[in-house]
Design goal:
This protein is mainly alpha-helical and 397 residues long. The chain has helices at 2-14, 31-44, 48-66, 82-94, 102-122, 132-142, 148-162, 193-205, 210-226, 231-234, 251-256, 268-282, 285-300, 317-331, 334-353, 371-382, and strands spanning 164-166, 169-171, 184-186, 243-245.
Length: 397
């Protein structure tokens, strides 16, 4: 496993060109994610070569930003924009990989992120990966920095004002993703309510705006719980739908949403993670029991189409390594550690079965849907203490 980690990371490093004038610096698709890979690999494989690379890339990131020679698919987002780059530096500070004054380095950038994040939430762009909630998540990590609290409170109010809240609970339309119905509510971790509730739980845990946050969590949980259906009723493979359309004549489409894949981004594993987070933060044994029930189903349900998985994090083997490792760390139940290691073995087998030219190219170098995510996932499987980077994907519990 270690040889495979080094092989992939060395190939990624060799592709970095110092004179690139359109460098992708993003956290989940670009250089910031690769920087993280090198720091973690250097520390947990005890190899100073990779640590030096990490420091070299930090300098390159700052140089690239200062000289405006970067290219981003989305200037502000957590996934593909400056929020993710700032988060990486914050994370490296927290984990003592380096000492960096974020106020000095990114003070103006953070003000820009607040303004555009607030605007995003006001128009319903709440998506954690691509919208305002990802910026809010970064600001939470920056606490107790003084300027963060008023920004967080304003963004929280904007989120609540745009949410739909009634007797069915709270939900939020995703206005970032294309191909959605007019009144469709995403329940997933990557783009929908499960991930947003996990971010709100971070505020709850820190005691910020407790009354408001508790209300939003309660209403969001009500909506998700109201959508649970027994497998024998739906005839599908999931307790929860991935999405829900509140329009007439959509019963068949809504039923189809109860078919989901086994993945980090969508499906019942999302709800298991959400219930674990809520159970821990709220000290709610019912939520913890729900989490265990849902997670257990994912181990035994042979209806999941795992043949559709790819190698990477978002909806692939790499993500499952980390999801099941997170559930193991939260519950202490060995069956989930076994599942995590089993998916690591599957990933290695798939890598061995296909030459690199079939799965390695310039477009898949990142953490979310690329080889950097493979590197860190295999590293976590080999060295469990290396799992700290999982907070990027809301797996920090």
């Amino acid at each position: 496993m270690e040889n495979r980690i080094r092989q992939i990371l060395d190939a990624l490093n060799s592709a970095v060109q110092a004179d690139d004038t359109e460098r992708n610096i993003s956290l989940m698709q670009g250089l910031a994610g690769l920087t993280l890979c090198n720091f973690y690999t250097g520390r947990y494989l005890n190899d100073p070569h990779y640590t030096r690379k990490g420091h070299e890339y930090c300098d390159l990131l700052i140089h690239t930003i200062n000289n405006n020679t970067y290219k981003l698919h989305n200037l502000f987002s957590f996934c593909n924009g400056l929020a993710g780059v700032c988060y990486m530096f914050c994370h490296l500070n927290e984990k003592k990989f380096l000492s960096f004054d974020i106020n000095d380095g990114f003070g103006d950038t953070e003000e820009f992120l607040f303004n555009i994040g607030l605007k995003s939430l006001k128009v319903g762009k709440s998506d954690y990966l691509h919208g305002g909630m990802g910026i809010l998540y970064y600001f939470i990590r920056r606490l107790p920095e003084e300027k963060m609290l008023p920004w967080i409170l304003q963004m929280l109010t904007a989120y609540q004002e745009k949410a739909r809240i009634d007797d069915n609970g709270m939900r939020m339309m995703n206005t970032v993703l294309l191909g959605r119905e007019e009144i469709e509510f995403d329940l997933g971790l990557a783009h929908g309510l499960a991930g947003q509730l996990m971010i709100l739980a971070e505020l709850k845990e820190k005691g910020i705006a407790e009354t408001q946050v508790s209300y939003l969590i309660e209403q969001g949980m009500r909506f998700i719980e109201g959508k649970r259906q027994p497998l024998e009723v739906t005839g599908k493979n999931s307790y929860y739908p991935t999405s829900y359309i509140e329009m007439d004549n959509m019963a068949e489409q809504n039923l189809d949403f109860y078919t989901s894949r086994l993945a980090w981004c969508y499906g019942d594993l999302n709800q298991a993670l959400m219930y674990l987070k809520m159970g821990k933060v709220l000290k709610n044994e019912t939520y913890l029991a729900n989490a265990r029930e849902i997670a257990a189903l994912t181990l035994t349900n042979d209806l999941y189409k795992t043949d559709k998985l790819n190698l990477f994090f978002c909806h692939g083997y790499s993500g499952l390594i980390n999801v099941y490792d997170t559930i193991y760390r939260a519950t202490g139940e060995q069956v989930y550690k076994d599942a995590s290691l089993s998916w690591a073995d599957t990933l290695l087998q798939k890598l061995d079965a296909h030459p690199p030219e079939q799965w390695a190219n310039d477009s898949n170098a990142g953490l979310l849907e690329g080889r950097a995510g493979i590197v860190l996932s295999l590293l976590t499987a080999q060295v469990p203490e290396a799992a700290g980077w999982n907070d990027i994907f809301l797996l920090n519990f």
